[in-house]
Every structure is written in structure tokens, then in C-alpha cells.
């Protein structure tokens, strides 16, 4: 047996919390360091890479979420699709948590992160790589920022430390009027 404290020290408390949340309470949970590393590679790395992609290019362009971005008409079909997926995810996670079904909530978040990194970001790279900061590029930044912020609030009950780190960089550093912590922010609705 591997004591929880030893495993949390080795792979991280958030990874352990996510694994326990994603496991069915009706069956024994298989655990080993190999499984924890697989979880990191399968879920946490795509999430972190998407966040890193956004932060890198937003800093290069000097983009901040100041509310003066392009109007909604500048949203592309992919922007509208990921925002629609986000709204559906919020409803799914809220419903799952209202029913005390953490496994359903985490599986929905995992599927969304896969769509976000493998479809939205991958298909929109050229928009972020453009030289000029035009309305189209601003719409892409605004969309990805909104998705990452709402996703951070959705994940906060499961991975509080990672969510707090993302919140501090995505929100509090650029929006002084925002709550000081993701755990003080409203859950998305």
C-alpha cells in the first residue's frame, strides 16, 4: 500500500485529488506512481500547455483583458463552438456536483480540455501567430482567456492549488477589482 501523504508528496496533492475525484466510489481505486504519471500526461499537461500557449502569446502581443476588444461579430465559428462547449460544460459540471457525482464532473472537464487543446488551440494557431494585433486576434485572445478563467473556476473544487495559480496569473494580475482568490470567486453559471 502507498500512504496518501507519501503519494501526494511524490506526485502532488492536486494530482491525487483529481485521481480520487475521477475514480468511481463504487469500486476500488487502482493506484501506483505509474498511473499518477499517466494522469499528469493525459490531463494536466494538455491543460498546462494550453495555458502556457495563451500566456506566451498574450505577453508577446501585450494583450490584456481590458474589455476594449473586438465586438462579438468578430468571433469565428471556432470561437462560438468553444464558448458553446464551455456553456455546456458548466451545466454538466454544476449538475454533476449538485448530484454529488464528482466522477462525472471530472470526466466532462477532461473531455473539454481535450477539445480545447486538440481542436480549438490547434486549429487557431495561425490567428495567434499573426504579426499584427487585429480584431480577429483580439477575439481569439478574449475567447481563450474567458475559457481558461471559467475552466479555472470549474476546476477549483478538485485541484485548488493549480486553480489558484492559474487564477492569480490570468485574473488578479490584470484585473485588480477581481476576487483575490479563485476560491472567493463565484462558481460559473
Write structural notes for this entry.
With 189 residues, the chain is mostly helical. Helix content is 69%, strand content 0%. α1 (4-11) packs across α2, α3 packs parallel to α5 and α6 runs antiparallel to α7 (160-172). The longest helix has 29 residues, at 33-61.
By secondary-structure content and strand pairing, the structural class works out as: mainly alpha
Can you count the helices?
Answer: 7
User: What is the β-strand count?
Assistant: 0
Helix content bin: 55-70%
Global shape: globular
Q: What distance lies between the first and last C-alpha atoms, to the nearest angstrom?
A: 40 Å
Cα Rg = 17 Å
Order of helices and strands: HHHHHHH
Unreliable sequence segments: none
Task: Please summarize what this structure is.
It is built from seven helices and no strands.
What are the salient characteristics of this protein?
189 residues; mainly alpha
Q: Helix and strand layout, with pairings?
A:
Layout: H1 4-11, H2 13-22, H3 33-61, H4 77-98, H5 102-129, H6 135-155, H7 160-172
Amino acid at each position: 500500500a502507498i500512504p496518501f501523504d507519501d503519494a501526494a508528496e511524490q506526485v502532488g496533492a492536486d494530482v491525487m485529488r483529481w485521481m480520487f475525484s475521477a475514480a468511481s466510489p463504487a469500486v476500488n481505486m487502482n493506484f501506483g506512481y505509474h498511473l499518477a504519471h499517466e494522469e499528469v500526461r493525459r490531463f494536466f499537461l494538455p491543460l498546462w500547455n494550453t495555458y502556457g500557449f495563451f500566456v506566451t502569446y498574450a505577453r508577446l502581443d501585450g494583450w490584456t483583458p481590458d474589455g476594449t476588444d473586438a465586438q462579438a461579430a468578430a468571433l469565428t465559428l471556432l470561437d462560438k463552438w468553444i464558448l458553446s462547449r464551455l456553456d455546456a460544460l458548466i451545466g454538466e459540471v454544476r449538475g454533476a456536483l449538485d448530484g454529488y457525482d464528482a466522477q462525472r464532473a471530472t470526466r466532462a472537464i477532461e473531455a473539454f480540455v481535450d477539445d480545447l487543446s486538440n481542436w480549438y488551440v490547434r486549429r487557431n494557431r495561425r490567428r495567434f501567430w499573426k504579426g499584427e494585433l487585429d480584431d480577429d486576434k483580439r477575439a481569439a485572445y478574449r475567447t481563450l482567456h474567458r475559457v481558461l478563467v471559467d475552466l479555472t473556476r470549474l476546476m477549483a473544487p478538485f485541484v485548488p492549488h493549480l486553480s489558484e495559480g492559474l487564477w492569480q496569473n490570468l485574473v488578479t494580475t490584470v484585473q485588480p477589482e477581481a476576487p483575490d482568490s479563485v476560491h472567493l470567486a463565484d462558481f460559473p453559471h
